[in-house]
Amino acid sequence: MINYIIRRILWAIPVLLVISLITFSLGHIIPGGPFDREKPLPKEIIANLEAYYGLDDPLWKQYTDYLWNALHGDLGPSYSSRSRTVNDIIKEHFPVSAQLGVLALIIAMVVGIPLGMVSALKQNSYIDYFCMFFALLGVSVPAMTLGPVVVWFFALKLNILPVARWGTWQQAILPAFTLGIGSAAILARLTRASMLRVIREDYIRTARSKGVSEKNVTIHHALKNALIPVVTVIGPLFAALVTGSLIVEQIFAIPGCGKYFITSVTNRDYPVILGIMLLYAVLIIVANLVVDLTYAWIDPRIKYT
Amino acid sequence: MEIKIIEEKNEKDTTVVEQRPEVNLWKDAFRRLLKNKMAVVGGIIIIILVLLAIFANYIAPYHFAEGNLVENYAKPGAKYMLGADFMGRDLLSRIIYGTRISLSVGLVGAITAFIIGVLYGVTSGYYGGKVDDIMMRLVDIMYGFPTLLLIILLMVLFKSTFAVTTPGTFAGTLNAIDKAFGGLFFIFIGIGLTAWLSMARIARGMALSLREKEFVEAARAEGATNLQIILRHVLPNLLGPCIVRVTLDIPYYITYEAFLSFIGLGVNPPTPSWGMMISEGYRAIRSYPHLALYPGIALAITMLAFNFLGDGLRDALDPRMK
What we know:
The complex is a heterodimer.
Chain A: H1 2-29, H2 43-52, H3 59-71, H4 86-121, H5 126-140, H6 143-157, H7 169-198, H8 202-209, H9 214-243, H10 246-251, H11 257-267, H12 270-298
Helix pairs in contact in A: 1-12, 4-5, 4-7, 4-9, 4-12, 5-7, 6-7, 7-9, 8-9, 9-12, 11-12
Chain B: H1 2-11, H2 16-19, H3 25-35, H4 37-54, H5 56-59, H6 91-127, H7 129-144, H8 147-161, H9 170-180, H10 184-210, H11 214-221, H12 226-262, H13 274-282, H14 290-317
Helix pairs in contact in B: 1-12, 3-14, 4-6, 4-14, 6-7, 6-10, 6-12, 6-14, 7-10, 8-10, 10-12, 11-12, 12-13, 12-14, 13-14
């Protein structure tokens, strides 16, 4: 087990190296530099700027320098906002994306898991059909459709919530709902399927035949086991919510990492692009590692070598 | 003919076929699919959308780029059924033409994902060992990428690298193709480059277990080559789950395009992409909410239809899951 964990963590290193290398190269083959302006800067100034940021070094040196600094926790300067480093930018914008992700995840769990449970317990009833239709709707309605609809209805028509921006809890409701509802639907379907599988197991029948009350069977015997696959997807779901929140950030004008990424791409701000990309890659890799480990921890039948 | 025989061989283990030997897996699955109301509804919606896309120029009352600035933001009425947008273009016509964009992205995404993913996955799973190790490592690395961010970066790369208009050069040719597709060509490549991953994993997993099956061993004993075994015994048996996966992934490809067009990295105006229409309409949502809502509804209906069909296919191809 320990061996497995160590191997998995070590494997993350080459993955991150390759991702950084690909992103770095993509950044450098894209024509147009960070110092391009409508009215071109004098050659000397560009040369000075490039020397200052080390952009006149050979590419391999730029890359190794970047890696070396990144390993020391310094993701470099930002070309487009001179007064801030990439670290500053991530410190400022990432918490926003993370908060949005956490709120969306909470909505997804609070709505999705009970919905799936009720559905499974009342299998093939109208409640079940209703819940599952709702879940299918939630999977299918994209944030791009839902965002404008909730803004129009709750913010403009009923005028009870703000249209956009970030800071107060009222401003968080609509975007978190828009982002979370799709995951709520995924969790509902997963919980239902897993619950249905578990309530057919022999040990449930045993518990029932022993005279355990139906409520007890559901809560202590079935639910606990049915939640195993649900718990394990929560990590990747969170990673997907945070890294995928840029659609919602764009719709609600939320100053998160994703929105800033789009701005940086237009500005050719390579260090910011690389920094956000690496940060999100780490998030995804850690989330996937956590799933495998929780699986092994929750379900002792799974052995890793 | 060849496929049919293999399917029957495979079904022997599930014992159902023993009593009704004339039924084959695909016919059986199709029969179950037709019994599933949701799947049928999804299928019908998709057929309607395809017809709308093919015959858009006959059905739509106006051309998608035809606008009358005097009538911008015209209210829905007799002349413009769903109203007109900020350029005075008929919204309904643009939504109808928009089916072409979304469906072609879905189709191209599905085809590339299927071809690259299945070939890659089968090779990896069937040969196993070192080959599998190396090939799956690559997939693991690609999985580490935040997909949307990567696609955005690729789009910027394509759009600016090939922004050369000199005819005859490689970049110039690509740029011309992209222009002819209204900016869709690069979206196809961007989505294709990322779409095959999940397919590769599924195909690999299936191939890994299929190669241990008795019928593969039997074929090998009869002297079949690896290529023959893959083509005749492995591929037909993993088509089912792969078709289900790709149907359920189509909505994702469609939203990727819509999102790229929403942030201005997708199709070139005036190509009527639903994502671009939502973004244009969203700017005027205070006064004209319908401009963002209708294309959004079109997008949601399309995704719902593919999810209905995908779910139905899964239940039909794997009845044990029910």
